[in-house]
Write the structure tokens for this entry.
Amino acid sequence: MILGFDNSFHDSMDGFYAPAEATKPGAPKLLLFNHVLAERLGFEVAGSTDDELARTFSGEAIPDGAAPIALAYAGHQFGHFSAQLGDGRALLLGEIVAPDGARFDIQLKGSGPTAFSRNGDGKAAIGPVLREFLVSEAMAAMGVPTTRSLAAVATGDRVQRERAHPGAVLTRVASSHIRVGTFQFFAAHYGADHVVRLSDYSIARHFPDLVDAANPHLALLDRVIDLQCDLIARWLGVGFIHGVMNTDNVAISGETIDYGPCAFMDRFAVNTVFSSIDTGGRYAYGRQPQIMHWNMARFAEALLPAIHRVAPSDVDAAKALVDAIPAKFRRRWQAHVRQKLGLAEGAGDDAELIDSLFDELEKHGVDFTSFFRALAMLLRGEGATMQALLPAPDAMAPWIAAWWQRIEEGAQNPLELAEAMDRVNPLYIPRNHLVEAALEAAEAGDLAPWRELLDVVRDPFVARAGLERFAEPGPVDAAPYTTFCGT
């Protein structure tokens, strides 16, 4: 097996991490390997046995060229600053450069304690590992920027949480694991020199076009804000609720990272919360744009020493960038929803139409994912799908009439427009009741339901015969869904 590591962070950023070693698993067994992603990364794994893959991606056998480290970072957790967090249950094996020149981190999650574990065991149970594998692959298939999952390996050990669970290790692939919290750590503990160094590295790795900017650190802030506005708009567009939008869970690459108590909304409600620890609703569905704004303000604060060093007057420019986030996000969100609704650009009443849509969806308790596919069916002259979603035939009649008028103003072929809408509105998402059933079966030793669900959500836009149950809303009489931080 040839992975071909090229470890720029390890080699050039000494002092920004701690060496780490994986805990040897008792009896590693491969649960799933993402061969398509491995090919994308340029890994030469042809001829490797499942046992060899399990040993490599559980941490039992560290591959040639790897330089395992745990990254340091801080973070605001539910608004409260923790000055030292770091990779407490993960280690970065190293970086690889894909055939197209893109650089990626290869990280093991659940591989044992590190210097940042704070008395934790550094391990992960099989449920959270399979949840992240499933949801991250679903997000990638829906076009949402995300970290990816390369392998899931059972360790053969038991992990004690509220009870004992089978242990597992996830191999995560990311453009990098540099977070807002990474900048916060070095700003809080070491000051301007370290912030400048981290910013320079981040720009060179992620955004080399910014190197020649008048103030590259200010340009970095602007770029990360833009990426986060786009990311959160995409989250909202698929009904995704992250659950723990702490600053240590915000990647500067603009990828979704750290799938803990995440879930997807069924019936629309703007204040939906699934996380057991988010008792105040800080990270509710509808608050995610505001929290993104807050997180970007914290990023700006951490970057200020670097920004100020180049040009003290640019501190005011940084503040202006942060102040402009709500308007920037709203423009991005409205453009995203127009696409979901099949609306052409340029009409002045779209903001009112979009805002009133979500009021109507909540008023009538409509399934969020199914609604947009049902709209496309109306363009095909089929209204039964929409009627099945609504509590009464005329429940959303005024809004639908206003939407239809806007569609007619666009003068597009309805059938072509329906096809375009179906290409951006998923039919299959990781429905919460299906996820829980699959994870429960997996913990009991039956991976078949999880593998089937994974196969479905990897192709989310095209209807397939025999998969109707995967597109159905969750049970109306189900108990409130609760998720937990488990990885």
The mean pLDDT is 95. DSSP finds 17 helices and twelve strands in the chain. Residues 314 and 320 are 10 Å apart (CA to CA).
